Amino acid sequence: PIGEKQPIPLPTIRENDVMWKKTIWREIDFRQKMNQGFYYPETPHQDWKNLFTILKDALSDPSTGVVAYKDEQTGELLNPITWSEIQKNIKQTQTIPVYDENGNITGEKTVESEMSSSDVMRCQIKEVWYFDKQRSQLLVKLMAICPVRMVPQSDGSMLPERLFWVPYDDNLRKVLVNAYYYNRNNAAMQLSYDDVFVKRVFDSYIIREDNMYDRNVNTYATGVNALNESERIKQSIIDYEQFLWEY
Question: Is the pTM for the entire model greater than 0.90?
Fold first, then answer.
């Protein structure tokens, strides 16, 4: 439609110019101050929506062309999932007491409700870092986004659950570039969600790199060791580019 913004074209790359690449998965925690724009507002108002609401609205509207995929252990986007299937997965069941006319509990019943966007406190992204020998640059390309909801357990703890993966393609970018992201530093300079991802205006930590064991960092490191491993992977990417040059 006329008046809609279009995303800035990303650099084109020839496969023959890629002399090195590495696939990385990151997690963005919305509780961190820098990332709170992904979480708020919990209830949409005016032109402001949080990330999960934007993804949900795009997937429920076939005209956007945005498609979701099931979460796979391998991290690949193999099996598309329909919006009706997603709705079934994100519905929440709750057991509530049933009262008689005197206010006495006579039993229980199970009710279903839509999952609240406030339950989505994280997201994961899949990206590819590569060295373009034509430009002599180390570049990164975002491949997909996955909202992660926190599911309460009987012992009071919260466990993360990946909901679905959405490819970061032209269809999704057209949606995100027209979705406002709150700029807490300057309200006169509006950002879009596409700006945030392309310009990398977020804080994150690495949870996985492509490896022969097909495993995540948390399967062989926990706590501080997992953070150290995340930093090691990040540093190895930086070192690759630095070691190409002589000073």
Answer: no
